[in-house]
Design goal:
single chain; 140 residues; mainly alpha; 7 helices; 0% strand; globular
Length: 140
Amino acid sequence: MKIPVFLTNTSSTFALLPLRLGLGISMIYHGSKKLFGWFGGNGLEASTAFFAKQGLEPALQLVLLAGGAQVVGGIAFILGFATRFWGAVIAFTMGVAVYTVHDWQSWGDSEKPMLILLGSLTLMLAGAGRLSVDYNSQKV
């Protein structure tokens, strides 16, 4: 099965690799905290309660979507697989986080999710770069 070109089209630069690795590790870390309670996180039950307190309903489904997007998107960023798609998904997820959870009017509180959002937008626009599944799939 051939992967649609708009998902894998990318440049031949190596410069995007550090961004992909950094964002990928960060997303896996944060998603694992939400879903599994790893790395000192609260886990699924507490994350669901937190989402409900923020008015994000249905809370369980949204925690699963956000945490799942972070873990799977993080893995995809590291591999450079469907990077443009996952860049859009992570950017949307971080946009929701900035608007609903972090004080989006205060740069200090929203700085980290905003930087993740901007990095994800960069990958959405630029693609994965040379050392990626996306780049290698263009040769097929």
